[in-house]
Amino acid sequence: MERSRSPRKVVTVALPIPVEAMQQRRLLPTILVWSITACFSVALSLTAMIAPLYGYEVAILKSANITAYNQAVIGFKSAMPHDTVFVEYDLKGDLTIGRTYAAKIRASNANVVLAVGSKAAVAARLEILDIPIIYSMVLHPAKYDLKAPNLVGVTTKAMIGQQLGTLRTIMPNLKRIGYLYDPNKTLPLSAEVIAQARQLGMTFVERQVRTTEEVPPVLRELLPEVEALWLLSDSTVLTEESFSFLLRAAFDRRIPLIGFDPEFSRRGALISFWIDPADIGREAAALALALLPGTTSTTSKSFTPRQRMALNLGTAHYLGITIPPTVQTMADEVY
Asked: Which CATH architecture has domain 9-157+276-290?
């Protein structure tokens, strides 16, 4: 007889320690659009470490209460067995609080840990040594030294070639694309990305800023040299307040913005590329379900979710850009 499943239980844990809240922005932690490779950091030796997840407990350690992270968690839960018990912890952007939560998880009955965001992943790596950890929504894992015998993850890598190909279709004469970034927070575009652009006859033009106050003058210096502005997920350059300025300054020179979240296109960016965070969460669940008792082998597998795209046809009309019907039919959201 098939045994019945009890309703899913969710427990939310709050620590009564005042912390400074992390900015609640709808910014996906990807520099452009994410394509994703799920890989093990090192060999996992999990013999006798966990039992099958069916009916067991999962601790979810989340860096902050922002939309992208919440969507990843929803995707993760949707792909797990119905009688899995979830215990959730929100760092509110504070690594110290995260380490406190991670220590609490270490002493709990959790069979596996899902760390969502870089701070959650770092806190879990530092405090949890004997429970399998799956990290997700981390843009540059190597930057945070996410290596441990019990650590695996859904890592991210931008599918620049596909994005640039779409831009070439929309703007056949596009040659120079500008972007701003803070080198203390964001890596510059890789040699691979630059080479892919060069193959399509495009060049990336970068400018560095180290404070929010530097953004306006540096942007004004950059815009006359480029024909499009590419937005990166950099908290020095891009905030709720600065986006409006970036959009107005670009529009004044008839230059389109290229975003990494559909919200940007809704607000005026010509085009945005992104990966649904729920897809990332579902892939993290697939990793969790693969951690069976007695697993001692190293496994690698690729995960390439569908790239999503948003268009703003009003912006295209204002800028005098004709978007081919073939591109419009590919869009997930049109404004």
From this structure: 3-Layer(aba) Sandwich (3.40)
